Amino acid sequence: MNIKIITLSLLATIATTIHSAPLTPYYSIRSQSVDAARQLVGWTNQVNLNDMENIYGSFSATPEYTRSFNGSDIAECLFGSNPCNNSSCSGRSITISGSQVAGRGVNDWLADYFYLPTDFKSSLHFNPVVENALVDMSAYIGFDRWVNGLFFRINAPLTWTRWNLNFHEKILQEGSNPYDAGYFAPTPIGRAALLKSFSSYAAGDAIADLQSSNTANQPTFDGLHFAHIGCSQSALKLSDVQMVFGWNFANCHDYHMGAGLRVAAPTGSRVEGAHLFEPIVGNGKHWEAGAHITTHVNLWENEDEDYALGFYADANITHLFRTRQTRTFDLKNKPMSRYMLAQKMGTPIIDNLVGGTPHVTPIAQFQNEFAPIANISTQDVMVHVAVQVDLAAQLTYSHNGITWDLGYNFWMRSCEQVRSLCTSAGCNFVEFEESWAIKGDADVFGFASNQAVGLSATQSEATINTGKNYPATNNTGIDSPQPAFAGDPAVPLHISPSVGTQTNTSIQPIMITANDLDIVGTRGNSNKAYTHLSYSWLENENLIPYLGIGMFAEFGNNHLKCNTSKICTKIASCLNECQTNCGTCSLSQWGVWAKGGFSF
């Protein structure tokens, strides 16, 4: 076989694999409360003390500002690794083009889905950024008066977060084409009635109601209700309240070792699905429980005990319990299909619509309503995470009241497990079965003279990039095309009131079912380097103030991975899990903080 042909085939296979990689329906971050580094620095000489006869402790407040970098990594998790037509965009640019734009790219999104003209063209640009400003209020109380080594600690960050896609659209070609009768409605739809931009569609706009027309069967056009793309969004809440009740079972001047129960109360925000890049404070409303481990060892100390070098480490290992969240899903093997257009289907079959010879009655017919797939693929689900690890290890140099911390922080969260939400009426994934289908670029009406008849034409193979008809004009690219007839006696249905070519309808149409949802979760891990410089006023024996500043750089791991070894079956009970993929999406960010407080 020709080597060039083999090479091109391999490249096509790789491109298809990348294009079909699952995308996260929700960008899940590390909770602003989960930061062992921030909790460890600055007070190592004030907590986990030995030979204390009374209750002692320390209180601190840590204002912190963080800002993400590597926006292309965030964009890849949201939009995929190859959404544009060149390798330089790094996942930050998407082209919107109509089906009749000459030379449209294979990765363009089809403008026809967004109530835009078939000759419309624009370019979308993204540079996502996440900012956090918080004050972490922490306390440590040692109960050595009653049990040597017994302690309690708590931290609760009041957090403001802003999530900004930095999205803007550059319109390259406004377009002037109308839609012919049959494509959306029994009558033509002129350019003036269509939307002006993708931004308008992404914000929830739609074609105005056509019901005022004298023509029957005018459809309704629903706007986007979920996964909006647009301006920055912010939130202000108390992040998870993290608590530890523990015991230092080995404790002396040169070392300590302790363990405890760690619990997190979810005081942050819940995932609601209104925006694609939804601002979240906390861990998404999960209760957490697990283990806290703490240790230190003195590596060196001079004879006067005013110079010392120590190694300190804290580890938190927790389970995130099930919680309800609202997430918008794509369809399997159709990345970003949440923004495609669906058509309402149903019964009874009117006007005696049939297809093929001999005539066969379809199982469903167009019911005069269009909606973005996001409106039907947004579901309440139950989400849990098996394990989360937050580990900080540092070297601390101290001289009198000065301490300098230099450390490393590792964080990871295993793959989210996403399941259907069940009520007394059953599992809600089945609510829309056999009610909606992918429209693609199919005509939804045929004509017998001037009478418009709703068809059963669906396009289950359409993607965000293309329908299956154009440049054909008689629905040859629909599912199971058969010549369409209607009436009694049945007569051929034409592609328009004035053109004699017979149109096709699907026998049978293919509906969107629960099994088509791509139930994707995410995992995450990151590596952080940090440093902190602090001073304690040790001359105040009863109440010791301390104040320090620190900074960090955190590098998140990001890649999308398809796990094809797990077969997703139709959800038939409340315990069935329908999850086939898990992508790794982690925030890279830098931050600065100041930590101050007092010990007693």
Describe the model.
The protein is mainly β. It has one domain (3-331, 373-435, 511-599). It is built from five helices and 33 strands. The strands form seven sheets. The chain has a twelve-stranded antiparallel barrel. It has a four-stranded mixed beta sheet with strand order 3-2-4-7, with no helix packed on it. Strands 8-16-14-22 form a four-stranded mixed beta sheet. The radius of gyration is 30 Å and the shape is elongated.
Outline of the structure:
This protein has 600 residues and is mostly beta strands. It is built from five helices and 33 strands.
Architecture blueprint of SSEs:
Layout (H helix, E strand, L loop, with lengths): L2 H17 L16 H5 L15 E14 L1 H9 L13 E5 L11 E2 L10 E5 L3 E14 L7 E15 L3 E6 L24 H5 L17 E2 L11 E6 L2 E11 L3 E11 L22 E14 L5 E22 L12 E6 L7 E2 L9 E8 L1 H4 E22 L2 E12 L2 E5 L1 E2 L2 E2 L8 E3 L6 E4 L2 E4 L26 E6 L4 E2 L1 E3 L2 E4 L1 E3 L13 E17 L7 E13 L24 E4 L3 E12 L1
Parallel strand pairs: 2-3, 8-16, 30-32
Antiparallel strand pairs: 1-5, 1-33, 2-4, 4-7, 5-6, 6-9, 6-10, 10-11, 11-12, 12-13, 13-17, 14-16, 14-22, 15-25, 17-18, 17-19, 18-30, 20-21, 23-24, 25-26, 25-29, 27-28, 30-31, 31-33
Provide the spatial order of strands within the biggest beta sheet.
Answer: 1-5-6-10-11-12-13-17-18-30-31-33
Number of domains: 1
Number of strands: 33
Helix count?
Answer: 5
**Which stretches are poorly predicted, pLDDT < 50 over at least 5 residues?**
1-19, 84-91, 562-580
Shape: elongated
The largest β sheet comes out as: 12 strands, antiparallel, barrel
Coarse structural class: mainly beta
Question: What is the residue-mean pLDDT, rounded to a whole number?
Answer: 88
